[in-house]
Structure formats: structure tokens, C-alpha cells
């Protein structure tokens, strides 16, 4: 198992906008933002020891229960991406976190992805408490992230604002 990165926020995931991710508008298609964020979730899960091997070895799984994406500024083919992750909350079975996608060289915020992740027992496919080793790592990272300001995109509700 790797040593968890206690940087706040977690700032180790890098990617590049692939040609197949581009839509007819000439920028990254909305669905591929989610793909890029999903890869960042893999990076996060590896920090807790619940990555691919966790499922491959039939120990457990993780399922996303809810997700919310904001699209703040477009990125285009070949653009380098830097995705940070901040833990917002956690309990015995769940992890609430937010990813922020930045253009890696220009520095602007391109998108955010807020998620609720749940630990799943491999055999029953039902929610289960995090394994001890994962819970300890989650708690260390959550403590490191506790002093970060809450991103304004976290907890947003979608809707049309009406003027009175």
C-alpha cells in the first residue's frame, strides 16, 4: 500500500484532454469531464487502499451514490489538467468529497465534481463500514483537509433563480 498524501487538498492527479474527448463545439464534451474526474477518484481511492486491487481481490468495492458537476470554463484538445481533491465529510461507510479541475498551465478553474462515495461489501453488494486501514487513512486525510475553506460549488442545488 502506498503512503497516503496528506497535502491539503490532495494535488497529485494529472491528465490531458484526449482527442476523443472533443465534441462538435471544439471543446471537451460534458461526459468526458466525468471520465476525467472518475480517474481522479481512482487516485483518491488508491490513497485509502481501496483501488482496483480492493475489488480484484474480492475484498470490497466503492459505489458513487450521487454526483454534481459544474462547468466553469472550457478546456480543449491537448490541454493539461490538474485535478485536486478535498474531503468534505465522512462517516463509517461514506465519503463526501469534491474535485476541482484546473488547466494545469494557465491555472484557471475548468470544472468541479462533488461526490458521495460508499464502501460496499464484495459478496453482499451492500453498504459496509470502511476497512480499518481505509478508515484510518480517510481520517488522516480528512483532518488535513479540515482547515480548507469549503468550495462555493459544494452543496449547490440546481435550479433557475427567479427574480421577485
From TrEMBL:
Keywords: Hydrolase. The keyword Hydrolase applies. GO terms for molecular function: hydrolase activity. Pfam families: 4HBT_2. InterPro entries: HotDog_dom_sf. Signal peptide: none annotated. It comes from the Bacteria. This is Acyl-CoA thioester hydrolase. It comes from Enhydrobacter aerosaccus.
Amino acid at each position: 500500500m502506498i503512503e497516503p498524501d496528506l497535502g491539503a487538498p490532495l494535488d497529485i492527479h494529472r491528465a490531458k484532454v484526449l482527442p476523443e474527448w472533443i465534441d462538435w463545439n471544439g471543446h471537451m464534451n460534458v461526459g468526458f469531464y466525468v471520465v476525467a474526474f472518475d480517474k481522479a477518484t481512482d487516485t483518491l481511492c488508491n490513497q485509502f487502499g481501496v483501488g482496483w486491487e480492493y475489488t480484484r481481490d474480492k475484498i470490497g468495492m466503492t459505489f458513487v451514490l450521487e454526483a454534481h458537476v459544474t462547468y466553469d470554463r472550457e478546456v480543449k484538445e491537448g490541454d493539461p489538467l490538474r485535478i485536486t481533491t478535498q474531503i468534505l465529510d465522512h462517516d463509517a461507510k461514506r465519503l463526501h468529497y469534491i474535485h476541482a479541475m484546473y488547466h494545469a498551465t494557465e491555472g484557471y478553474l475548468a470544472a468541479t465534481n462533488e461526490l458521495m462515495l460508499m464502501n460496499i461489501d464484495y459478496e453482499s453488494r451492500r453498504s459496509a463500514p470502511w476497512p480499518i486501514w481505509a478508515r484510518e487513512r480517510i481520517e488522516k486525510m480528512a483532518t488535513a483537509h479540515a482547515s480548507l475553506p469549503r468550495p462555493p460549488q459544494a452543496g449547490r442545488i440546481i435550479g433557475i433563480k427567479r427574480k421577485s
